[in-house]
Structure formats: structure tokens, C-alpha cells
Amino acid sequence: MAILPLALYTADQVRELDRRTIEEFKISSATLMERAGAVTLEKLRKHWPQTQRLAVVCGVGNNGGDGYVLARLARKAEMYVTVYQIGNGDQLSADSRAAQQSLLNNGVAILPFQPQALQSTDVVVDAIFGTGINREVTGPWAEAIQAINASGHPVLSIDIPSGLHADTGNVSGVAVKAQVTTTFVGLKQGMFTYLGPDYCGQITFDSLQIPSEAYENITPSAYRIILKEGIAKLPLRARAGHKGDYGHVLIIGGEQGMPGAARMAGEAAYRVGTGLVSIATRGIHASLLNMVRPELMCYGVENAEDLKPLLERATVIVIGPGLGQGYWGQMMFNEALNSPHPLVVDADALNLLAKYPQQHERWIITPHPGEASRLLDLSINEIQLNRFAAVYNLQRRYGGVAILKGNGTVVCSGDQPLGLCTAGNPGMASGGMGDVLSGAIAGLLAQGLTLSEAANIGVTIHAMAGDRAAREHGERGLLAGDLMPYLRRLANLQMN
């Protein structure tokens, strides 16, 4: 399988790349359309080599023009091709009109769309909308998309599934649910977060032979995170090294009845390579945690004075797993924030932060959409509708590094391009996963990585561990503790 580029772009940036290509490098829009159609046919035949009957559903923009080119080339390849037009043909651009006429000249009729028309085909090609859609899909376009999704046939979307927002991964109304999406020029950021992965299916990419110079001075909006490059930043272990060389993580949490969260965070920190882990928890839990994981140094802490010596010995702090929001949790939270050490803030510590907002540059905050909604005083739906804007606003309001967890976890490190994690699976929607993530991030911080490096690598090693566990045992029933052996294997990639 071809490797996708790391760079992600907004729809406006891709349009600027198109403009540069056409105006500065004198590659015409018609030439790009011809290349897009040819690449799409190549991808279609690769994925469904037995295809004989093809239905192409075209809109009135350049995406429809790509569809006309594909249909003509497929007809020349001796496929039986049926083309359906949605929208007013008088609105076609000059290049799309030329592509349409060339199709007609090759003996392929263009028919008005009828929902039942998709029954007799092998593959449906979606060429209705491109990256410009930013409104709710209604009327005949919505009916066509619903018919495509209900057809029961494999679907290939050209550039982006029609109805999917290229910048946010949001669907307003309806969108085509493709098995394969062949995208061009630049990967669109919305294809990799929120609803984007579910609607795009397998993503393939082609630059359409655009010169590399066209990309100069256009900074991608985000980058896909690659684990192996990040793991290489971890220091190699010296034979003369000792546990103190690899940091000391302090986990603060485990209010009465919730010791498991702190235990999982602590074990995750160990599994990615930190040298020492202490847990500050309620006294009732300390001996129990020592028994179930004796490598953890567990201390019963009932007040701020009890916590101070533990803070002095630590190099990185995790605050939040099982912390609670009562008097004890608030006391621990306030004392941890007075420490000069880097912090990973999770779970109830985020809820306390929402109640008592403040800004620090030495922490990583790790909210899921529900916690982010409280931190930004927005609804969960508003957070999900634009996850990129939400993570930017989290970082600006609270400082440090912000992580917005979810499908396509996003990391914001100030003015740097966003990091986006494309790993992970639905089986990870279970209790304790966030505790494992916060511990893994802290363990990486303790070994000398920067806040940004630890956040980006941490979310990726965590998601990939979940994928490996699910691949071996299935998504359903996946527990947070199941990730531990895979965290260790992935943290040792540089040595393998």
C-alpha cells in the first residue's frame, strides 16, 4: 500500500496550490482534470479489478469534470459506463463542460439522476461535490447521496466524499460513505478526524505531478504523526545508566474507590521506559496498589504537607486519574500546580481547571470532547464540529500543549502546525484509556522529551498499542490494561 504524505492542508490551502500550479507553472486546469480522471481509473481498477459496469454520479463543479474524464477513460477501457448528472448543467465551468462534451463525443450518454438507477452496476463513483462544500446538503443532492449510500455497491469518491467538510471532518446533513477516496494535490485535514475517517474509507493520494516548488512557502495546517521518527528522539540506554537517569513520575490521584486509574497511569509510565514511578493516593489504597504492582511506590497522602516531599523527588507529575473533585482532590490539585515540574493534566484535574481557570506553559492538558466543552464553555457538539479550532482555543486559553482526544486526536503546541494521530480504533472507547495515555506521556517526558514531543509521541504510541491489541484479540472487550505489553514493544522500536 502506498504511503501517504505527512502534510495536511485546509481547503483554502489546496485551492492556493491549484492556483499556483495553473498561473505560475502554466499547467492548465484541464490538464489537472485529465490527470485526476486517469489516476482515479487506475485506483478503481486496483481496488476492484473485476469491474465491468460503472456508474458515475457528477455534480456541476470541477469534481464533476473529474468524473466525466474518468467515465470517458473507463469507456475506452471497455467498461460499460453510465453517467448521471445532478444540478443545472448550465452552471458547468468551461473545463467541466469540455470534459462533458468529450464524453458525449465518445458515445456515453449523460442521464438525469434516478435513485433506482444504481441497481445495475459494480462500482459507484461519487463526483458530486469537491472541497468547496461548506453548507448543509439538501434537495436532489441529498437524495442522490442517500441513494448512493443505500445502493449496496462499493463506492469510490473523487477527492473527498461529497458532503464531508474538508477542514473539519464534519457532515452537515448527509455525506457519501465511501470505501475508497482518491484525493489530489494535498491531503485535506478533515479527512483524518471526527467523522472523516468513517466516510473516507481507505484514502489514496496523487499529487497530479504538481511541481514541488508549488508547495514552497505554504506551511501545512497539520502533520500526521509518525511514531518511529518520534521514538528515535528518546535517548539510547547507556550500559552504565541507572533508574534515576530515566526520570521519576509522580501520579497524584485515586480518591476513595478509584485507585485503578492511578495504577494504570503509573504502569503505563513504566512501560514506555521511565525509571521510577510514585503514586500519591488516599491512604486506604496505598497498600493495595503495592500488592498488585509492587514496582510502584505508593504513598498514602491526606494533606498538602504529605505531598510536598513527593513533589520534590519527582521530575514529572500526572494530576487527575481518579482524583475526584472534592476537598482532597482540590487540595492535591492546588499543591501540584505550585510545583516547578512539568505536568500532565487529565480527568478530574481538567474539571477542576474548568472551575478555576489558569494558564501555565509547563503542562500538557489532555481533554476528551466532554472535558473540552467544560474548559471552553461550549457544547460537545460545538467542540466536535471544529476540532481544530477547539484545540487551538484550548492551547491559547490554558497555555502549554493541548491534546483533544477522540477519532483523529489533535495536538496543539503553540504556533507549530498541529499534530494529528491517525491510529486508534473504536474498541478504545472504554474506561481507563485516558489514564494509560496520561501515564505514557509522562513517562516520555521523564526521559527528556519536550512537552510537544511527548504529547505527539504519547498519543500515537497509545493509539498504536490499542490497534495492535485489537488486531490480535478484537475491538470488542478491549481493556485499557491490554495496552501495556504493546506500549513496551512500541517504545523499543528504535532498538529493533
UniProtKB/TrEMBL annotation:
Query: Which keywords describe this protein according to UniProt?
Result: ATP-binding, Isomerase, Kinase, Lyase, Metal-binding, Multifunctional enzyme, NAD, NADP, Nucleotide-binding, Potassium, Transferase
Q: Does the keyword Transferase apply?
A: yes
On subunit structure and binding partners, the annotation says: Homotetramer.
Name assigned to this protein: Bifunctional NAD(P)H-hydrate repair enzyme
Q: Which GO terms describe its molecular function?
A: ADP-dependent NAD(P)H-hydrate dehydratase activity; ATP binding; kinase activity; metal ion binding; NAD(P)HX epimerase activity
Q: How is the cofactor bound?
A: Binds 1 potassium ion per subunit.
Q: Where does K(+) bind?
A: 63, 126, 162
Which family does the record claim for this protein?
Answer: In the C-terminal section; belongs to the NnrD/CARKD family. In the N-terminal section; belongs to the NnrE/AIBP family.
The record's Pfam families line, in alphabetical order, gives: Carb_kinase, YjeF_N
A GO BP entry? nicotinamide nucleotide metabolic process
Its function, per the record, reads: Bifunctional enzyme that catalyzes the epimerization of the S- and R-forms of NAD(P)HX and the dehydration of the S-form of NAD(P)HX at the expense of ADP, which is converted to AMP. This allows the repair of both epimers of NAD(P)HX, a damaged form of NAD(P)H that is a result of enzymatic or heat-dependent hydration.
The gene that this protein is the product of is nnrE
Q: Where does (6S)-NADPHX bind?
A: 62-66, 130-136, 159, 261, 322, 368, 435
Catalysed reactions, semicolon-separated: (6R)-NADHX = (6S)-NADHX; (6S)-NADPHX + ADP = AMP + phosphate + NADPH + H(+); (6R)-NADPHX = (6S)-NADPHX; (6S)-NADHX + ADP = AMP + phosphate + NADH + H(+)
The EC code for this enzyme is 4.2.1.136, 5.1.99.6
